[in-house]
Amino acid sequence: MTTTKQRTRAGGLVIGVAVATLAGITPPASAARVPQPAWRDCAGQDLPAGMQCAAIEVPVDWAEPDGPKLTLKLARLPASEPARRIGSVLGVPGGPGADGIEDLKHAAADLTELRRGFDLVAYRPRNVAWRDHVPPSCMRPGTVLSDPRDRRQYETLAAAMARAFEQCRNADSTGLFSHLDSLSVARDMDAVRQALGEERLSFMANSYGGVPAAAYARLFPQRIRAMYLDGTANQVNGWPDQALRSLPVRERVFTRFTTWCAGTPACALHGEDAGAIWRKLTRDADRRPIPVTSSEFGKGELTGWHLRTFAFSTDPGPEHARWLSFADAVDKARNGDGSGFADSVLGNARVWAMPGALAMTCADDRGYTGYAQLRKVRRQAERISPNFGGAAFDALGCAGWPLPVANPSRPLPVRGLPPFLGAGSTWNDYVITESFTRMIPGSVTVAYEGPGHVAYLSGRKCPIRHATEYLTRLTLPEPGTTCPAE
């Protein structure tokens, strides 16, 4: 996934409630229909030709439809061949906190074939509205995020986060803090469907967008014509399951790194056992953290857990630039200079302790149930992955969440759902996406045999071709279909 730090610099928080109760699992009786919006040409520069904009209002709290309202901005690219028009495809952005309209602007040139028969529709989810109006106090980390080694340390962390969450909640004037769960987002998505005048929608969900996509499938299965999932999270099976499934993939990619380094003189660890150096570095840093100073985030310490969690990228980058930088940073860090990791590690650890960022995800059941679960999952992770095993940073950040979990992880009823199409990188998110799609009878997931995340936002032609065929003709590729790296 895109790192938190990269997203923050791109212009906003992006990180994978009130007692919307489990009654929220059943759609309420439909109130007044959402009026069709007034579309107009979008204002701004560097927009795809023909992009139109509009807005609709939805309740802040769907349990109180006549209560305070929230404006959702919409955009669409009308079908380029109206005589062939099938309907609308709604993009479901990730993050949470990513802007679907920005996604559409970015991907439009690669989706021209899909646009022949569809209006391509995007929206700015409620967590973007929250992100744009989040109180300053919500952006202060509640604690220094670390891996608790005993119950007392965990309870201290949870208490600090609970105080930060309550301060953020009290400072919130929008009412959104308590209503950022994906069931609320799914209801917003259905309001968009109504505003478009469509009986059923087709969807393209990416990354964390898989969580509201699953919520939509739970609430409105009869409204789904087709669902394409690209590098999506699988909240249905629970976040610990997702984390444990990902670790073997990281181990395989790390072996790719060490093999590459052994054959690359430019690698700073060339001629040595890069894996052994990394494991010794993280063990030593757990015993004696490395002091660092970041020009952006100030002073801090790098423990082995911080390094295992935030330092390594499964995407080597152009010309292996990220792996070259990683090896250089490891080489310096083993000699006491952690500067190569300071910005990325301290930045991510800081954001994942900010209540304003976590409010967009904790109500989707992202936190540990307590120290006992943390300890159990950590032991499993350490057995699976000697290089990266440890507590999950996102679950730690959600410790102390003060509200009931509005969208708990639980089995997904699949009756009435059409087959889904998934796509994912075998270097990254394929295993998670496939664990989601396999729940839906008849579904297929295409394996992209290269690094990266979210193929259709990366312009990967082969996955886009399969997505276009599926969304247009409802034709799935054969099980086991792969796409070569591009």
UniProtKB/TrEMBL annotation:
Assigned keywords, A-Z: Signal
SUPFAM superfamilies from the UniProt entry: alpha/beta-Hydrolases
InterPro entries linked to this entry: AB_hydrolase_1, AB_hydrolase_fold, Pept_S33_TAP-like_C
Domain annotation Peptidase S33 tripeptidyl aminopeptidase-like C-terminal: ranges: 394-483
Pfam families referenced in this protein's UniProt entry, alphabetically: Abhydrolase_1, Abhydrolase_4
GO MF terms held by the record: catalytic activity
Domain of life of the native organism: Bacteria
Positions of the AB hydrolase-1 domain: 180-279
Signal peptide: 1-31
Descriptive protein name: Pimeloyl-ACP methyl ester carboxylesterase
Organism this protein belongs to: Nonomuraea rubra
